[in-house]
Amino acid sequence: LSDIKYYPDYDTDYEDATCLLGTMDGRPSFSSMAACCIGSYPDQTSGACFAGMANAPSAAPSALSDIKWYPDYDTPYDEATCLSGGNPNGRPTYATQGECCIKAYPDQTTGACFAGMATAPSAAPSSVDDIKYYPDYDTDYEDATCLPGTMDGRPSFSSMA
What we know:
Layout: E1 6-8, E2 19-21, H1 33-40, H2 48-51, E3 69-71, E4 82-84, H3 97-104, H4 112-115, E5 133-135, E6 146-148
Antiparallel strand pairs: 1-2, 3-4, 5-6
């Protein structure tokens, strides 16, 4: 999953454009569709890029830090994940998908919430403090990010910042 990249669709009119799965020479690539939308279409008033996401937010965020996650209480507990975007029915919101999974589904034995992450950790952490990130040395420096989990021989960090 760490190889998943998105690139902007410059062949479509700006107001209708979205981000596409994959990479294309001469275009920036991003580790998530949200990062691609924010980085490539910051002034898009139609919201088309975010509307194209699987779990589209109710309003286009202006920064990744604006994206909030909430538990999907409409799905059975053992199958549930966390969703991004608006906050239906006053559900709790979290800054990251990992934090949402830990706090909303602490006893989920199936791991469905973490498995639903774009870059799922190798094992479900038991607290937010347990979430570690390691540098993605397998991706070009300009496009690299940190990935959740740990990997032998690589440093680990408590946040992506």
